[in-house]
Q: What sequence folds into this?
């Protein structure tokens, strides 16, 4: 009986570890997820903008990160350059034509573990009606129980460099840079995730 009880206690102790080791689906927390990007303006400045609304899910397999994947939608209506007139210009026909193409989406196609909490996430970014492959350099910040919500949570940071002409958004190049630098921070939790 004593041996059987010992096994039962060990199984209970390892249960939380097993829960985190299994692939888990997380929903992005819009209040703690940001997608920011910057560009060079005539060589004088490097303005930044962000999407105020970022929706999506990610599945993370801690035992085999290569099996993980992510899907994100960013409505063009939430684009925010902090300058209302510029918001309208970027949403217009010269640039993203938000009336015709209302969303920017990203869907991963491959995750490559690179050690030391680093991942390379390759996927298809769709903007302005054009889909083009993009590579994100990702760092896993933390995975564990959220101290306030008491549900499994996970967080990542990521960077990428894009060329906007790849998406048919080449107005004013090269005076306004073709290269766009992207910085992402993500917090996601298993609350409500299936």
A:
């Amino acid at each position: 009986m004593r041996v059987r009880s010992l096994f039962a206690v060990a199984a209970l102790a390892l249960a939380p570890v097993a829960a985190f080791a299994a692939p888990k689906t997380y929903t992005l927390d819009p209040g703690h997820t940001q997608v920011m990007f910057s560009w060079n303006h005539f060589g004088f400045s490097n303005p930044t903008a962000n999407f105020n609304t970022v929706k999506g899910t990610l599945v993370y397999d801690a035992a085999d990160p290569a099996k993980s994947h992510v899907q994100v939608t960013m409505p063009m209506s939430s684009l925010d350059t902090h300058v209302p007139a510029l918001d309208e210009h970027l949403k217009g026909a010269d640039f993203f034509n938000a009336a015709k193409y209302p969303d920017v989406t990203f869907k991963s196609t491959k995750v490559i573990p690179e050690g030391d909490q680093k991942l390379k996430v390759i996927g298809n970014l769709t903007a302005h009606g054009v889909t083009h492959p993009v590579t994100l350099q990702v760092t896993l910040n933390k995975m564990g129980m959220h101290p306030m919500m008491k549900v499994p949570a996970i967080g990542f940071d990521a960077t990428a460099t894009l060329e906007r002409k790849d998406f048919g958004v080449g107005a004013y190049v090269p005076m306004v840079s073709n290269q766009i630098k992207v910085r992402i921070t993500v917090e996601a939790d298993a609350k409500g995730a299936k």
